[in-house]
Amino acid sequence: MHRTHYFNARLLDPSLELDVLGGLLVEGPCILDCGPHLQHSGAIHADSSIDCRSMAIAPGLVDMRTHLREPGFTHKETLRTTGLLAASGGVTSVAGLPGTDPLVDNEAALAFVLNKARTDSAVKIYPYATATAGAKGTELVEYGLMSAAGAIAFTEGEHAVSNAGVLRRIMQYTSMYGLLLIQRPEEPFLAKGVATSGELATRMGLSGIPPEAEVILLERDLRLVAMTGARYHASLISTADSVEAIRRAKAKGLSVTCDTAPPYFTLNELAISGYNTSAKLSPPLRSESDRRAVIAGLLDGTIDAIVSDHAPQNSDTKDVPFARAACGGLGLETLLPLTLGMVHDGSMPILRALALLSLNPARILGLKAGKLAAGYPADLIVVDLDKPWKYSASRSCSGSRNSPFDGHLLQGRVLRTIVDGKTIYVHGT
């Protein structure tokens, strides 16, 4: 098989706390060797050699929360463009939410996404399946069959299972099979607004969503986890109370993990000023104190992963009055540099940041990824950690042109993305 030697690189592997100058040898789709002894050109026989010019080599990112738009919403994005955006952002593995049309709630729909992704996407796509039939929160899906068919976990996607009795049954079944349940906690009857409740929403004349809507449902779920022993992951944690609830659950030894997304540690509710629909997200942007609490949760290990929450929306659903606008925006291209912002300001070590983006998500999902280890898939990124650049959503290949970070100055850029040993993206080409 073809051997490629990446040399003169800064090797970053959070699984080993590795941060050294060295090189990496890839044979076919797998990593063959890695370490300081491979730093120089000619150190070992290879069919091709790539000088990394002292740039960083790290495991490819594993994104636990991407909204797939194919099938059903290809005017917003396709599996092909999802793969292209992911590659440009250094994401080599994508876990896709099941909110397509048709929903991924049966084996046929799951097979379509898997097969289409294999032919169209440059990166690896792992679909979630819904936790209930039609995501209606009543009838359970066939968890064992769906898992065997390739569903990596189960989630209702943009909303939670609100019926506690149904959720208890779901947890009993998923725990029986050792499967992961993912909830985006939000009490639906409290979450009828379009912005976080408070002075800003009132001044703008917008209906409010109290922050308590998140923690109320989360605390109910955590009680059910204690009852059933289920594996539970809370997605898009955005409030101080939720961070504290997860912290307490972990202290009790519950099988609980959680994630957040860059908007919730880089922006606060002021980003919607001027009725900026690009900053209309779900959950909504929170207060400054909540933002700081999310950062604290990332730093102390309460929050396990950072996700893109990539949710492409076309202009027809965004260029409308704020109350009617759809939630979400692009996120794959900015996931890494926004996370690196905490590294550049000195608040987070680089290996901790990479663990949140690769190693931890891979462990939660049970993927063989997130390491620069021999025998692991050669899913890699070459990164200039310091390169400044300005993000422009209008240059995206997606059918969406909306991002809360459009026009923002960022630092850190992916130069090359490799999946299974093959280069799928080179910056500037």
What does this structure look like?
The protein has 429 residues and is α/β, with parallel strands linked by helices. It is 30% helix and 24% strand. It has twelve helices and 18 strands. The protein has helices at 79-88, 107-120, 143-149, 164-177, 199-204, 212-228, 240-251, 263-266, 288-300, 315-318, 335-344, 350-365, and strands spanning 3-13, 18-27, 30-35, 48-51, 56-59, 61-67, 91-97, 124-127, 154-155, 180-183, 195-196, 208-209, 231-234, 256-260, 305-306, 380-390, 409-419, 422-426. Strands 1, 2, 3, 4, 5, 16, 17 and 18 form an eight-stranded mixed β-sheet that branches. The chain has a five-stranded parallel β-sheet with strand order 9-10-13-14-15. Strand 13 (231-234), helix 7 (240-251) and strand 14 form a beta-alpha-beta unit. Helix 4 crosses helix 6 (212-228) and helix 6 (212-228) runs parallel beside helix 7. The protein is globular, with a radius of gyration of 21 Å. It starts with a strand and ends with a strand. The mean pLDDT is 97.
Reconstruct the topology from this structure.
Blueprint lengths: L2 E11 L4 E10 L2 E6 L12 E4 L4 E4 L1 E7 L11 H10 L2 E7 L9 H14 L3 E4 L15 H7 L4 E2 L8 H14 L2 E4 L11 E2 L2 H6 L3 E2 L2 H17 L2 E4 L5 H12 L4 E5 L2 H4 L21 H13 L4 E2 L8 H4 L16 H10 L5 H16 L14 E11 L18 E11 L2 E5 L3
Parallel strand pairs: 1-4, 1-5, 6-7, 7-8, 9-10, 10-13, 11-12, 13-14, 14-15
Antiparallel strand pairs: 1-2, 2-3, 5-16, 16-17, 17-18
Helix pairs in contact: 4-6, 6-7, 7-9
